[in-house]
Amino acid sequence: MPESPKTIIKVKNLTVGYGDTIVLRDVSFDVGRGEIFVVLGGSGCGKSTLLKNMIGLYRPRAGQILYDGQDIVTAEGVQRRSLLRSIGVMYQSGALFGSLTLMENVRLPLEEFTDLPDPAMDLIAAMKLQLVGLKDFGHYLPSELSGGMRKRAAIARAMVLDPQILFLDEPTAGLDPITSAEMDQLILQLAESLTMTFVIVTHELPSIFAVADRVIMLDQRAKGIVASGSPAQLRDTSTDPWVRSFFRRETTPVAIQQEDRPPHE
Amino acid sequence: MKPFTKKPSAALPGDVCRILEHNEETLYLSLTGRLDASATAQLWTPLLNLVENIAPQLLRVKADAVTYCDGAGIGLLMELARRQLKRQGQYSLNGLKEEIAHLWSQYQPEDFLEIHSTRPQPCCMPEEAGRLVVHAWQSMLDMVRFTGELTLALLHAARHPRSVRWPEVWLVMEKAGVNALFIVGLISFLIGLIMAFQATIPMRQFGVEIYVANLTALSMLRELGPLMTALLLAGRSGSAFAAELGTMKINEEIDALTTMGLAPIPFLVVTRVLATVMIMPLLSLFANLMGLVGGAVVLLSLGYPLITYINQVKAAVNLLDLTGGLAKTLIFALIVAGVGCLYGLKTRSGASAVGDSATRAVVMGIILIVIADGLFAVVYYYLGI
Description:
The complex is a heterodimer.
Chain A lengths: L6 E12 L2 E12 L3 E6 L5 H8 L7 E6 L2 E2 L5 H9 L1 E4 L11 H12 L4 H14 L15 H12 L6 E5 L7 H17 L3 E5 L3 H7 L2 E6 L4 E6 L1 H7 L3 H7 L5 H6 L7
Parallel strand pairs in A: 3-8, 3-9, 6-7, 7-8
Antiparallel strand pairs in A: 1-2, 1-4, 4-5, 9-10
Chain B lengths: L16 E6 L3 E10 L1 H18 L3 E12 L1 H16 L3 E5 L3 H7 L20 H35 L6 H11 L4 H26 L5 H39 L2 H7 L4 H38 L4 H11 L2 H27 L5 H33 L2
Helix pairs in contact in B: 1-2, 4-9, 5-9, 6-7, 6-9, 7-9, 7-10, 7-11, 7-12, 9-11, 11-12
């Protein structure tokens, strides 16, 4: 990763919430081009809400989310569509269309957004499925597959248009350790070969250590970022006992405050 | 560029792809610039046509001037390799930039000789017919099994009324019954009105307009009141049951109930069936009344006083007509709620599955209601009701 990568996403003074609840208040951070950026935090801290705001599904209460200088919050019409095209999203549950086969699911964005001929779309979709190890399952319906396979197919669909930024919501949750490690390898490979930027919401520690260039850690009580840096930095040097205990997989932050325990990893 | 292609309409975009060398055995191409989805879309057909026409033994591609290559571009390179492999020719790709070469190295042309894109279709009519028969047989078995389980659960509920979750029964009665009053009332009123109005014209020719009251009363009480109520409930509540239980099935709520030791049929189906059975006769009674009101409006407009209409109706129908009609609604209610719940529980996964279940529940509900109504007609005829 370059020393100071050019910023691709700039989040400025973002406040998000739903109903009467404010989840995150006045949050700012940058994501560099080609960076693998991980959003981390305990359950209910607003990771997914932040993600849904960043991909334009929800409208934030205040603040800006700039993609190469263009604000997705205020963008409309053609500008919004082209912004959305430059991002791919894998949802937590996969969100594959149940009435379409895997191949048709992966092909769908190609059919809608490119002029490629039919055989080309078939081949490209098959190649994306091959990347996630599902080439022989192209003619299966999502309901005939396991959760992990659906998740991998969803990644194939999210990246079929080669977006600049890929948002992954819990990509490795629910996968076995080997597939999970393969997924991490895949993410690294894509980031390297396509200079794709990844924004990953996860709390799988092995994945974070395997792929993350930078991590921000959200906290429910602080309603914002409590720590940011590389995973190793957070584990070793963070002064926040909660952050350190998270990275050391310890159960109670109090235990950390009492003495310095050796890290588990 | 030499006109190699047989289809000059799809010319090779020269700024992206050029032919460096071409002889009987070898085709040497060079690719330049960005190989993204739009460039690939332009290049795909003409380039493949060209290669197909020449069918070279060796296809060489020089790609050192490719600055960017995404999945679509890699797809094109792969398609060239795949075709060479299929015709047992050779393929050499060189000069790829390191990061693109890295991406290219993820794939092997041998993996893509066969691509399955859609579901395998049934091969022929016999196979399809066989599937249909097996499916119909399975559905029938399901229905028999479900009817048995439901009967046992209802018997159990009759012996132990405290085991029934009555608050849910009231709730379903409100949703399926009270909230349906408006539509049931409106439709029945209009049916009574239309039937009376249509009957008036031929009756007038014989000077017996007053018998419109007999016709309206008899057909509403014996037939149309219960039938229309049942059909409306099949459309309104049968589908709702199927969708609700279907969504619960997809969300694994039904599995959760089962593992808690709560069988879904007593827990979910009995409440709905009881509520529907209790509310349908009442709704049907209301439908009868509204149908009679519709008939009254027509006769009033013809100048008959209301008391004449009421007396005529009283003379035309007896209590047996009314109760015979209401008795049918009990069976109709069983059908509507039972079929709705059965299809709900049979829902497979996927968003469209819930819609399919609701549709099937309504269609099957209506079919069974009409069949049951026909059977009732025969039975009542022999019983002299």
